[in-house]
What we know:
It contains 16 helices and no strands. With 369 residues, it is an all-alpha fold. The chain is elongated, with a radius of gyration of 27 Å. The protein starts with a helix and ends in a 12-residue tail after the last helix.
Amino acid sequence: MALSCSNLCSQLSLIRLCGLRTNIINNLVHSPYASGQSRLPLCRYYSSSKVRRGVGRYVASKLQRANSKYEAFLKRRFPRFYQLYHTFVEVFYHRLIPGFKLLYQDAKAVARIKANMGSTGVEFKDLPYREMEMLRQFRRNVIKAIPLVLISVPPFANYLVFVLMYFFPRQLLIPHFWTASQKVEFQGIYHSLRAQHHQPVLKGLESTSSSVKDKQLQVRLKNLCVKVQNGVNPNASEILAVRSLFSGPPLGMKRMSTHQMRHISPLLFLTPRLPGFLIGRRLNSHALELLQLDRALSRLGPHQLSEAELRQACYVRGLNSGRLDVNQCREWLSQWLQVSSSLKESEVSLLLHNLVLLSANYPKGSSRH
Length: 369
């Protein structure tokens, strides 16, 4: 009995795989994403032999018939599983295939940017804003996709991968495969996770203020922390008034406490579960990259960004932009750039703390925004 069930499952898996491959081929050939240029070589290839075209049609029809029988069998004998199967197939066609196309386009764009950097000698910090942002996002997406690729390496593990992608899209899929509603939902979830570290970062700043020797700077830093903790949004001048404390002791990148760095790391979606020296190196690298992005954005001009680019820019810098209108996003980003454009590379620690100072209470003075 066990042997017969095993044979039946293997045959059904083969039929399902054949059916999926047939449907994928048909979708790719006849989908609106396929251009006329991509169909022309196929036509030339198959028009050279009527026999080859006939065999192809025969095989395709057999696979489609086998897939239809398999779906009818599922619908008759396992109706609940059929609903899950049908839903998954719909998700596969309408999300994964376009997502792979978008990912392929980004990969080509990244390869072109890298080639231009190699041929012209242009460094990352001198790239235009959009190219710089594409390289940054693509690297993060590739890192996130590595675990999923490793899971799919063993034989027949692709079935498990499909199920995991369906039930855990936020954890496993990169944004190319999210729907528009999922992007807003998932960004809200991620922002709520980093917002949990707002108060610990502020408390760390307040406790550090007691070790500041300059009494005037000590009062300014303490008042700034109390103001944000009380739900008031500070302005750029109040933040820049304490900038000198973030270039050396006690809040510079090389002088900051490990405890404070562990609370800042989740603001950039970095793990805090590393040795202190590694956390410091990663934070410094990401802070410098963010400063370079800000400088490139200032050269471009924030008004040149589309709505999607504007919301993404605000989200990367600590703001939950999905709840705000476009004008609020532009106003907040101008305040951020006012602070960022005044900073030196030795003061990037203030840029990291600005993820909390400037965004925790915007726009209505509530830390929930």
